Amino acid sequence: MAIVLLTSSAFGAAQVSFDETNNVVKPRLLIFSGSDWCLPCIRFDKEILQDPVFELFSTQNIEIEILDFPQHKKLNKDKIAYNEKMAERYNPQGYFPHVLLLDHSGKVLTKIETAKATPQSIMEQIKPYLLPKVLKEFSTELILMGSSFRITLVTSEEEGEARLQEAIDKIKEIENWLSSWKPNSITTQLNKEAASTPVEVTEEYYQLVKRCMGISELTQGAFDITFNGLGDLYTFDEKVHELPDHQTIKNHLQHVGFDKIDLLPDRKIWLKDTETKISFGAIGKGYAAEVVKQLMLLNGVHGGVINASGDLTTWGTRANGEPWKVGVPDPDDQSKVLLWLPFENKAIATSGDYEKYFIHEGKRYSHIINPKTGLPVVGSRSVSIISDSAELSDALATAVSVMGLEIGMNLINQLDGVECVFIDSNRNLHFSNGLKKHAY
After folding, report:
1. φ, ψ of residue 191 in degrees (nearest 5)
2. Is residue 327 within 8 Å of residue 338, measured between CB atoms?
3. Alpha carbon of 242 to those of 198, 392, 402: distances in Å?
4. Last residue of a domain, one of 129, 164, 184
């Protein structure tokens, strides 16, 4: 996978801003409510906003603005117009309750989760955005999961090194149970034993396999974690390569297919074919990047970038308020950027033939293998997928590479919150519908 270029780093604590009297401007808690009909809204007001501890916390740290949309109470025309204008900007979907924390400029710092909320849980979500606090960037780069990981975190001087180590330890932990190269991993155990007897796995592993199978169904098999054995047919380090004969490919394909995985009750997995092997090479790094991001958010890290060889996820903005800037590199020269993308609290993964490929009879074959034909992919130089999850972006980048431009882009255009940049073999750029007006 190609390394997506960054030109900036870090994340979203509220910046210090002063009013004309030189007082610090506090972050604003924006609350969309239906005060006389929405039961969760009524609960939020009674159990959170009226809680004495939360009232003291809010008085000291934030401003609260409630935008009410009642069904029976009467509001004046100016208030109605103002509330509707704010809803167009901050709540176009019409969710209730909908709670956002804004900085002094009106920029959304975070969405506050209100389901089963307590005063303490709301305060914990707000605390990472409160200033003053001296923020610094802490970075490290190392080989994990067989790939180059670059981790950048924005947090306080006291926490920086410890949080970096925490991120590294989490990736190593994931590698130990996910990798098919680790002799004691769950994946290795499955590949050895699950064809003869169901293997009980952890809940985390079980759910990951379940999501993989869901993506396989969505992409009609273009993404498949059972393709593992097909990779043994090719040597992508050799730039000139002969294709295996048809019968050899056919023999291998008999053991490929996500339908050969059976998810049983009690977190047990059974492989129906003794020769079927699974591997998470097309989703593992994106999964790890997403897990680390969520861990850092949970622990109050103000911002960061987890870049796993092009499977990249970010949150927030730089400590100085600047956004992340992410570019799609030129397939022929990764030091050059073909275009910059709008990138705020998003994940991107890029699959391409930048380094791993071979030439056969004048045709360039990517290292990405089509699980349905057993042949390496041709026709795409690079596919970049932008979504809310590095795990999903990673899997879909592989799937769209396999599906090709027309079918792959048609799929992406049907998925909410997912966008694509497709560079074909002639270096032409193609954009999904939602990205066309933003690319520059």
Report:
1. -65, -25
2. yes
3. 38, 33, 20
4. 129
Residue 295 CB neighbour total at 10 angstroms? 15
Query: What is the amino acid identity at position 422?
Result: F
Between residues 230 and 266, the one the model is more confident about: 266
371 & 407 share domain = yes
**Does one domain contain both 368 and 386?**
yes
Say whether pLDDT at 9 is over 70.
Answer: no
The first and second tokens of residue 395, run together, are: 């899997």
Q: Could you tell me if residue 373 is left (phi over 0), alpha (psi between -120 and 50 degrees) or otherwise beta?
A: alpha
In angstroms, rounded to a whole number, what is the distance separating the alpha carbons of residues 263 and 207? 10
How far is the C-alpha of 155 from the C-alpha of 285, rounded, in Å?
24
pLDDT of residue 14 exceeding 70: no
> What is d(CA 324, CA 315) in angstroms, rounded to the nearest whole number?
9
Per-residue tokens: 171: 């990736």
Residues 245 and 179 in one domain: yes
How many whole angstroms from its chain centre is CA 101?
22
CATH code for the domain of 138? 3.10.520.10
Domain finish residue from 100, 129, 158: 129
- Quote the domain boundaries for residue 118: 28-129
**Residue 431, in any domain of the structure:** yes
CA atoms within 13 A of residue 357's CA, in its CB half-sphere = 23
pLDDT in tens, 37-49: 999 999 999 999 9
Burial grade of 250 (CB within 10 A; 0-12, 13-18, 19 or more): exposed
Do both 225 and 353 map to the same domain?
yes
Give the C-alpha separation, 200 to 265, whole Å. Answer: 9
CB atoms within 10 A of CB 194: 23
Q: Strands 28-33, 63-68: parallel, antiparallel or unpaired by DSSP?
A: parallel
* CA 415/CA 396 separation, integer angstroms: 11
Is the separation of the CB atoms in 342 and 34 below 8 Å?
no
Phi, then psi, of 144 in degrees rounded to 5: -140, 145
